[in-house]
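[Discussion] Sanity-checking designs against the backbone

I'm trying to build intuition for which residues belong where. Below is a structure token string of 116 positions. I'd appreciate it if someone posts a full sequence so I can compare it with mine line by line.
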């Protein structure tokens, strides 16, 4: 027990739960039911300055989060099946997909905002 370095691994399916959270968060923005506010949403000067831009930009951000969430969910399920005996590899893949999908969603949201 003492002197043994045991790494704690996250089960790959727990990554899917993170993806589900992004999907749930995305729905109100896609439906356009989140008004301009000081707590949540795509809050930059351009979106705050115009209500129409707010709803358009947040709808795009919502779809980007939805796609990222689905990719994270699928990756978590697939890696839980493929890397059953080696959670280290599964977690590395899930971490990479998690970060990459959110960075791509962020970049696309800003790109789309620039076009509004």
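Best answer:
Here's mine. Compare freely.
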């Amino acid at each position: 027990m003492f002197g043994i370095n045991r790494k704690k691994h996250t089960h790959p399916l727990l990554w899917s739960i993170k993806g589900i959270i992004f999907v749930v968060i995305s729905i109100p923005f896609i439906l356009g039911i989140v008004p301009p506010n000081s707590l949540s949403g795509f809050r930059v000067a351009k979106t705050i300055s115009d209500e129409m831009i707010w709803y358009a930009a947040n709808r795009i951000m919502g779809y980007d989060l939805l796609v990222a969430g689905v990719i994270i969910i699928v990756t978590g399920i697939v890696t839980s099946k493929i890397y059953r005996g080696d959670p280290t590899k599964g977690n590395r893949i899930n971490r990479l997909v998690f970060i990459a999908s959110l960075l791509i969603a962020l970049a696309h949201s800003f790109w789309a905002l620039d076009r509004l």
